[in-house]
Amino acid sequence: MPALAFSERLNEQVGHEFAAHQQYVAIAVHYDAEDLPRLAAFFYRQAVEERNHALMMVQYLLDSDVEALTPGIEAPQTSWEDNVAPVALALDQERRVSEQIGALASVARDAGDHASEQFMQWFIKEQVEEVATMSTLLTVAERLREKPMELEEYLAREALGEEGEDPTAPAAAGGAL
Hints:
Layout: H1 4-33, H2 37-63, H3 85-110, H4 114-143, H5 148-158
């Protein structure tokens, strides 16, 4: 059974992951409305990924016979001054989630909760990838600030965020429907 401090923080993180999901949906809708389909598709995929992260955490809590909560979240930001700002927000969000994930792993380690610490290792690896992807996307978006269609071409060429399923990922509640 996970340490109480870890399970409480993991339940909080479920809310953070659902908030990230909602923020990515809002960003995707923004790009959809701007007729930037590659950017929209990228962020819709990111939204599903964040939702699945929350459900992986829920499944871990359920498997550990700990109450799994689905905390309420604040409404996401839905408007931006330009088409680069949503990517900057996404990078900030990924950096914040990385800090949260690291803190969760530390709580597990400090409590001697080896199973929970091991569970968090996949998320640590995932966050390194997420920050790197968003950082690259922001760099390219800033370079192409006045040429959003070239950013669309970049996404098509590089297939950013289209890596597919990770067979090492933890199981998600509901089978990640």
